[in-house]
Amino acid sequence: MPELWSEFLPHPWNLVAGGAAAAALLFGFIGLSAFLGIWAERKVSARMQDRLGPTRVGPFGLLQSLADGVKLIAKEDVAPQAADKLLFRAAPYIAFCASFCGFLALPFGSQFVAQNLSVGAFFVLAVLSSEVFGIVLAGYASASKWSLFGGVREAAQVVSYEVPRAMCVVVPVCLAGTLNLNTIGAQQVGWFWNWNVFHDPFTFVAFFVFFITAVASCKRAPFDLAEAESELVAGFHTEYSGIRWSYFFLAEYGSMFAVSGLAALLFLGGWHSGVLPFEPSVEFGFWPGTVLNVAVFVGKCWALVLVMIWMRWSLPRLRIDQVMTTCLKYFLPISCVLLIGVCLWLLMVPAAVTNVVRYALSFGCLALVLGVGASLFRSPVTASARAGELPGAWARR
């Protein structure tokens, strides 16, 4: 980005212009993603609960999020009388900045990244982990025991799940031999069986463990313990209103897209579609290829975000002891086994066996996806039930 501006501005103004342009693009992307994510969440939940969801404001209710944003801006920004005013007002910004900074090292295409860091994977994990400071400060500064309890619960959960999540990140890093996310994505060029997720059984399982732990780190259901059922309050952001309350939601949806982008880069081929045996930005030219790369990368991120939304409205909320037990008793040892297993695989398994396993996993998953897709076009069971009878096993009863 600074090289582009060097043609028009001298040093150091080219660096300032490049940084400002990158920040504006990333902020716009996070805002648009949250805008569409909230609408998608409402639509998906409505479908799963046999409702319509937003329909009135804009076509298909698309502008409902905009209307809610205007309402939140117009609301009074209040704080409890006993709250620590400075920390109370700063906590939402800390949470959002942590989520925003994670996008700085995420490449949306070949060399299309705000800051190409040699330790990009480590940087993304580090800055996303700092969101917990905003959560703890929000709960502590609110001068409410319910907010404090919610903040402590979320902090314990987020910090615990960061350990297996980081260990699952090391699994594809061992394959690539680098922490540079742009290099990791470039190494998966070509057909979809070149993706890291299909390299061996350990990377295959590591992808699912990483995704589940990432959902927990984003405070998404069934791991949203800030809102305990026994309390009927909103946890660490109970005392927030108006625009500051919305910053926590921007941080949550931003983190969802950030961890989805990290999963796509580490396991799912990054910006590569899996059906082109070459790098699009090289064959089609930089800008046409980059547009295609960005579209593919954002599409993968959206697919993973929709899975998170699907999980939220499908699974019951867990208790705090169940969440911590799942992390410390199961995911932590499983991630250790995966890390040791992939290292032994790289050292001991011949390349011919790796290729056979790679093809078996990739084409097995392709067959599964095609089978699930074909099942969507089958005639529903209810079509075979006569009037006045229940379908399936309940017929004629």
From TrEMBL:
According to its UniProt record, where is this protein mainly located? membrane
Q: How does it sit in the membrane?
A: Multi-pass membrane protein
Sorted alphabetically, the keyword list is:
Cell membrane, Membrane, NAD, Quinone, Translocase, Transmembrane, Transmembrane helix, Ubiquinone
What is an example of a GO molecular function annotated in this UniProt entry?
A: NADH dehydrogenase activity
Which InterPro entries does the UniProt record give?
Answer: NADH_UbQ_OxRdtase_su1/FPO, NADH_UbQ_OxRdtase_su1_CS
The protein's Enzyme Commission number: 7.1.1.-
Q: Which PANTHER family match?
A: NADH DEHYDROGENASE SUBUNIT 1, NADH-UBIQUINONE OXIDOREDUCTASE CHAIN 1
Record-given protein name: NADH-quinone oxidoreductase subunit H
Q: Which organism is it from?
A: Gemmata obscuriglobus
Task: Name the gene that codes for it.
Answer: nuoH
